[in-house]
Amino acid sequence: MLFFSIANFCILFISCHVFGVVYGSAAENKNGESDAELKSNKMKMTRENFFKAAFLETRLHQKEAIKSVLKFENYEKQYKICNKALEKIFQVVTAGKVIVENSDYIPGANLPSNETVAAALEQIVDNTAMFGDFQLKLPDITDRIMKNHPEWLVLMKWAIGFSNSTGIFDKKTTEMIDLLCQEMNLIERKDNFINPYRKYEEKVSF
User: Per-residue pLDDT for 20 more than 50?
Assistant: First the structure.
C-alpha cells in the first residue's frame, strides 16, 4: 500500500484493522464436558487467541509508524502529525466507548462474540496502546496537545482501565502501559523512572 504522508501512515494504523473470528475444528471431549460446553470453551479460547494475535500484529505497524514520526527533526512537523493522530485516536476511542457501554459486555468478562462490540473493543485497546507510544516517545509535544484537551485525559484514564481489564495486552504492552501511567502521573512514579525521550525538564500539568 502506498502511503502519501507519514501523517496518513500513522492515522491509518490507528483506526484500521480487520476483525474476524476463526473457530477450531471439532475435538473429542476428554473432560466429561457436554458438547455445548466444549464448543463454548473452544470458541472462547479461539476468540481470545485471535484478539491477542490481531493486537500484536497491529502493534508492529504502530511501532513502525512512531519510528517514522521520530525520524523528523522538525518540531512543527512532528507536532502537526501528532496532533492529527491524537485527534483520530480520541475520535475512535470515543466511538468505541459508546458502543461497548451500550452493549451487554461487562469489562473483565469474556470477550464479546458480537462483531460490532468486539470491533469497538479492539479499537479501544489498539488506540490506547498507540496513545502510549505518542505520550512516551513524544512526551513534550503530547503534553502540549493534551493540555488543550482536558476531556481527553478523562477519556484516556477510562481507556487504560478498560483495556487492562480485557486481558489482551501482552507482557511488553502491559509494561509500557505501566510506564505510561507513571509518565502521566496517574500512579506514583518509581524511584528509577525516567523518560529518555523528554527534552524539557518542565512537566506540563494536565
Answer: no
